[in-house]
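Chapter review: from sequence to fold.
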Amino acid sequence: MSTVRIACDEPPAFVGILRLQPRAAPQPQPEPRPTALPVFRVSRKVYDTFKKIFNKEERGQLSFDELSYALTRIGFEFDGRRSGSRAAFKPPESHKNIPYCVHLPHGTRSTLDRIRLNQCAEFFSETYGWTLEWFALK
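The token string follows.
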């Protein structure tokens, strides 16, 4: 008598003569939102920086130094330059361990334009769940 083995990615939820059904994949849990906003109480300079990032109607550009200052004031650590013109910021322990990498402005440009600011806002929103409401003046 020989044994028949069936290869399956997931162990079956039910084994019987009539059918085999794989288990449903676990659904990822959304990132918990803080119980009280704002989370970060910051200076006017830092608040204005995040306002430029999150408010799409806000005009103007942002220098890399302003972005670096704002991130380090809320607990990020400048992790140095990466390959080429990229820099990384390591988040504080209270956040996901996913660093924020940014392309440094170079050439004739010395600021982050609106396109880069939108990318920045999208990353912060999707990765950390941030909105402008997370920030308030001290």
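Two observations follow directly from the output. DSSP finds three helices and nine strands in the chain. The first strand starts at residue 12 and ends at 15.
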